[in-house]
């Protein structure tokens, strides 16, 4: 009877161990994917900011030219 119980305990503990290891592995994989998605979002935000900054700079250059032109005519 004790041999049967020990086999049951060994099987159960092995199943639990395999379950825990599998869970940790899947969780790590999921975390890595989320971190990578965060990096991609950051890169996209940087590109968008760069586009906006270039637009603002071009507008400032146009206004500067316009102001110089108006001051030159005065």
Automatic annotation (TrEMBL):
The chain crosses the membrane at residues 6-26. Keywords: Membrane, Mitochondrion, Transit peptide, Transmembrane, Transmembrane helix. GO terms for cellular component: mitochondrion. It is found in: Mitochondrion. It comes from the Eukaryota. InterPro entries: Pet117. Pfam families: PET117. GO terms for biological process: mitochondrial respiratory chain complex IV assembly. Belongs to the PET117 family. This is PET117 polypeptide.
């Amino acid at each position: 009877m004790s041999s049967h119980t020990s086999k049951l305990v060994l099987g159960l503990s092995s199943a639990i161990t395999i379950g825990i290891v599998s869970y940790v592995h899947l969780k790590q994989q999921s975390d890595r994917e989320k971190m990578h998605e965060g990096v991609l979002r950051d890169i996209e935000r940087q590109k968008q900011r760069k586009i906006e900054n270039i637009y603002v700079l071009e507008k400032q250059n146009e206004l500067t030219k316009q102001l110089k032109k108006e001051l030159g005519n005065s």
